[in-house]
Structure formats: structure tokens, C-alpha cells
């Protein structure tokens, strides 16, 4: 049975689902600036999850929102002197391209916040009628003192919220921890009509409303980054329970861990980001996707280009192992291990360890057994969204590669070994200060599509990979 860690109960639980109706909401991006690797991790790890549910024959309705109106979007658009819609549309196109290159499933519904403003106004109105919302000179706010279970998801205290978190500081709020449902617009800012005055939605109310409109009053899974637990998801619960107090809202909360760069979390607010599409362009989406598979989704994941390069080589080994093999689920042992690892809170690093152990044991199998193992390994990776097609960098004509490396007395068997020898020869020339000859080697290998940039600690890579 599938067991997952529920952030709300803070324990791993056996999930109870309707086979014919599983409803999932993933918090999508606020389209203020280009996607970074952290966005990629959230998209990919929950893509693994949704694909696995489909493998288990669950019928899934999957929604991922687009936050296309927000204080930061307004600020960025003003800095660029463009309309907020122009900025949002441009940035969203970058996300679309990244998701496509990472081979993420397209959600069944992708609601934009600005398309649901009338419904958001109605939702806020209901909160006011139910006694949870109040109106001030600066906007409409949620009175957290009226919701008894506030902060149950995050486990924070009210004092921690007041002293340890950036919260809206408008002086006309009843309490510092109250949060905005509707913000009255300043001159020149985007705005919509409402019963309380011209303005725009608060961030949190957008998701509560879009979930209600697209998935209903109670959903099975709400997914997102761990950094969204407070205040975003905490406030979503308060809002949704404020409107539908007898509904559960979310049965299981799933959160992925942050990416770390040099031990520090990767986030826009910290100015500590790596742009996702830059690495997809350099390494290919499949390699970046595989990098995310190597860590448990709930754990922090350290990022470096060395680790990305290591992921590339490891994925190449899997591609080579399954080359010219038709994927079929014919090895029951491999399938059992796959299910056991994924049912254990999506333990993908354990799965990879088990798969490589079985690959190493393949030499002891009969030919037909080894072929079945290869077929099933390929099947599992396809379930997880990997195509395992030898990419351009891996399917270059072997005759061409053999002829090229033979010029340097290198016998070509596979690309990593050949490049290691090639790099050693070139480094020897550089150490002997024969820079002209070294440059000729660099230029010649570029003609077959391999890039070596001196001074970059990235090894080598395929041009336009």
C-alpha cells in the first residue's frame, strides 16, 4: 500500500483514496521572474508522484495554478516599464518551456488567478459573512483569532509569527498576524471592482478560491515546496475552513525540500538562485530530471555542477544499459522493488540504489533473464517520465567518433572514457605550454559537437545539449 508523509499530521500514513477520483493541487509559480532550479525540483518530484499514481491505475485530476497578479509582479513590471500582463505572460512562457523540456505532465487544469477574480470576490464576501474577514482603510483582512486551528500545519506559535516572519504591517489591522484577502490599489496599479473598493486579491485567497472552483471543497493532495507551509498553506487552510467549516479541505499535505547551494537554501528572496533553463540548455532536461530523482523529495538537496555532471554520466550508463531494448514489465523482482520503494514515501534514492545493484548482478543471469531485467528497468524509468532515448550527445554516429578519436590514438568504446583520454592529452599539451596545439584539439572536437571551455569547472558537454 502507498504510504506518504503528511505534513499536517507530521507522520507517514497509509493513504486512503478513491481509485476513480484522486484530486491533486500543486502550487504553481508566481510569474515574476525566470524559473530557477528550485521551481524545477517541485515540478519534477510531484510529476514522479502523479505518474506513479497513474501507474497504480488511479484516475487523477491534476491542477497547477499560475499566480499572475502579486505585489512582486507589479514591482517587477514597473521596474521594466511594461504592463504586468506582459511580464507575467513572458515569464510563464519560460516556465512552459522548462516543464516541457523536463518532460513534466501538462496539468488537466491550469487556472490563472486573474481569471478568477469574480469568484475570489465572492469567496472573500463569504468569509466576511462568516465572521472571519473585516474591512479597513487599506483592504480586507482575515482575523486569525477566529480560527482555532491556525498554525497547526506549521506548528508555529503566534509569538514566532509576530517576531520571526515577514508579515504585512499595515497599522489598521486588528492584529499583526492577520493577513490580506483584498488589497486596495494605489494609483497606476492593476485593479478590479469589489463591494469594498477597487483593488486586487491577496496571494493566499487566490489558491483557496481556485481549488474550490476547479477541484471542489475537499481534495486528496495539496503539494508544494516546504517554504510554502507558512504563511501560504497555513493561510489557505484558514480561509478554506472559514468558508466550508465542515469540509476537510485537504486530506494529505505533501511538501518537497529545498535545494541548497553551498549549504544555503536556493531562493529568490535570498538572491541565491540558479536559473533552470540555463542548465537545461547545457545538460538537457532528462539529466536535470534525473538529478532530482537522486534525492528523497522531502530532504534538502545539495546542488553543484559536479553533481549535475555526475548525474549526466550515471544517466548515460542507464541509457547504454537499456539501448535497443523494448520496455516491458516482465521481471517481477524489479517491479516488486519499484513498488516497495515508491510506496515507502516515494523513496527514489533507495530505488536507484536497488536498480544499480540489480544491473551489477545482470552478468550472473542467463541471456533471456538479463534481457527481461533490462526491459523492466527501462519500463520503470519510462513510468517515472524518462524517455531513455540516447540523446543527440549519446547517439552521435559511432563511426564518426571512432574515426575522430583514432586521430589521437584513442580507441573509442564509449564517450566518457574517450573524453577522459582526450582531455589528458590536451592537458599535457597545456602543461608543456603548447597552447596552440591544445587550442587546435579544442577547436577540432567542437566540430563534432563537443564543447571544452578552459577555466570552467564543468568538464565537457555537448553543444546545444
Automatic annotation (TrEMBL):
Residues spanned by motif 'KMSKS' region: 265-269
Keyword terms of this UniProt record: Aminoacyl-tRNA synthetase, ATP-binding, Cytoplasm, Ligase, Metal-binding, Nucleotide-binding, Protein biosynthesis, Zinc
CDD domains: CysRS_core
Compartments, as annotated in UniProt: Cytoplasm
Source organism superkingdom: Bacteria
Annotated Gene Ontology cellular component terms: cytosol
Every Cysteinyl-tRNA synthetase class Ia DALR domain range: 338-379
Keyword Glycosyltransferase: no
InterPro entries tied to this protein: Cys-tRNA-ligase (IPR015803), Cys-tRNA-synt_Ia_DALR (IPR015273), Cys-tRNA/MSH_ligase (IPR024909), Rossmann-like_a/b/a_fold (IPR014729), tRNA-synt_1_cat_dom (IPR032678), tRNAsynth_Ia_anticodon-bd (IPR009080)
Pfam families: DALR_2 (PF09190), tRNA-synt_1e (PF01406)
GO molecular function per UniProt: ATP binding; cysteine-tRNA ligase activity; zinc ion binding
Binding, ATP: 268
Leader sequence segment: none
Residues where Zn(2+) binds: 27, 207, 232, 236
Assembly with partners or alone: Monomer.
Protein name: Cysteine--tRNA ligase
Organismal lineage: Bacteria, Bacillati, Actinomycetota, Actinomycetes, Candidatus Actinomarinidae
Gene name tied to this protein: cysS
